[in-house]
Amino acid sequence: MEFDVPLSPSTRAMIEAATKRGIPALRLGTGNLVQLGYGARQRRIRGAETDASSAVGESIAYNQELTRALLREAGIPLPSETASAEPSSQNGYRLLIVGGRLVAALRCDSTAAGSEFTDVTEQVHREIAARAVETAQIVGLDVAGIDIVATDLAQPLDDQGGAVMNVRACPDLAPHLQPTHGSPRPVAEAIVELMFPVGETGRIPIIAVAGSGCHSTVSCLVAHVLQAQGSSVALSRDDGWFFAGRSIKSQGRDLPCQQRLLLLNPLVESAIFETEPATIAREGLVFDRCDVAIVTDAAIADGPHTHDELLAATCRLLQAVGASGVAVVNAHDPLLVAMAERCPGEVIFFARGDRASVSLARDRGAARIVFVRGDCVFATADGQETKVARLDDFSFAYGGLIAAQVESVLAAIAGCWALGVSWQVLRTCLASLAAELDPFSDLAAAWRGPLLLEPAAERQSLVAAR
User: Fold this and answer.
1) Tag placement on the chain: N or C end, fewer CB within 10 Å?
2) CA dist 71 → 164, 170, 265, 308, 338 (Å)
3) 91-98 and 49-50 as β-strands: parallel, antiparallel, unpaired?
4) 302-314: buried (b, 16+ CB within 10 Å) or exposed (e) per residue?
5) Looking at the structure, do residues 240 and 139 belong to the same domain, yes or no?
6) Total of domains in the chain
7) Splitting the chain (466 residues) into consecutive groups of 10 residues, what average pLDDT does each group show?
């Protein structure tokens, strides 16, 4: 991450440790406040301070008199009330406690040029470590720096007249990361692991939908299915974003700005982002990785961007699919079929039923394909076919009369399949929708709980005429 205002060494170390774990990071403002993870799975840090830090604990730590009173009552060894400094025979040490365990320790030596720090983590007696952990717990801190004085770290504090001198609520990680002498300690990694246990990445499902024509129908269909399963779904479109039964007009915000706001929202459990190759070419992607990318067609040159630039932007979206993610691609578009080879994850092709397109998808090694045969939608996985539904089961498909609408249905089905939705749930959710899913309609007025959209007379007239 690059910023105009530099981050503190502690914050930067935390971001680097999170990035190694695949945890995304977003800076909040221009200071050291950073969000790790997206949406409902996010956590926040400021340097070594986490959002689980007790505000009461921090206020205690900043009140040295109160801190000592609490520690004294708990039997923690403290310096003599009449001594203003530690005895000359003792050394100063800084211990770092993370989540109830000692993760690093330094000896602090004053020199004419400043201070030197020597890593002494391996020398700490278990009783000293236990007292440091107890001190952090008494104050109420999940991450704490404990300053002590002692003659010998290999002996208990009481045996040598050692004492706890100070408790730091937001310890500086820099000396542990780059000690003057000794080996650096993975202190930032320890804090990140405290916040995100092994296996957790702080990510929510992100579904990106791109293309022309009815790609908004695709995003609406997927949103409906996920919402019907109980997920708190956010949908971002050109005209605004929709979340928790509310529609919010764009109010001049561009798509990347809208999408970033949704990733910051701690209530969002899954996000569906409509995007355009032109937007990607101009602004890039707001997310570093998505779970599913649904691309209905290759972009046609329009505006300031050339055709090659738009194709490169589409390819960038496909490359943003995670290794465990899925790209859903229209098998009728040879450019998309060729670009799909650059997707790090799996590719699911969809086709209206043209045998050549289905054969092409199979030739490209596609393990999963969604297609139409006759008046039915089929899905094949490793050669095993499943009848998903009849087109007539979905009123908004208009019996297959409108090719673009059929492709939208197939793309949405493939996208939901990629997300692990069962066929039964998918059939039930999509069959519950009313006929009108016109992508140019005012979705803001239509987003009422599940996407139950009223039929439009204009579309009914079109179908009747055909």
Assistant:
1) C
2) 9, 19, 39, 67, 67
3) unpaired
4) eeebeeebbbebb
5) no
6) 2
7) 74 97 93 95 96 93 96 93 58 96 96 91 96 97 96 92 94 96 97 96 96 78 88 86 75 79 94 90 92 88 81 94 95 89 93 72 76 89 87 71 79 95 88 53 39 34 36
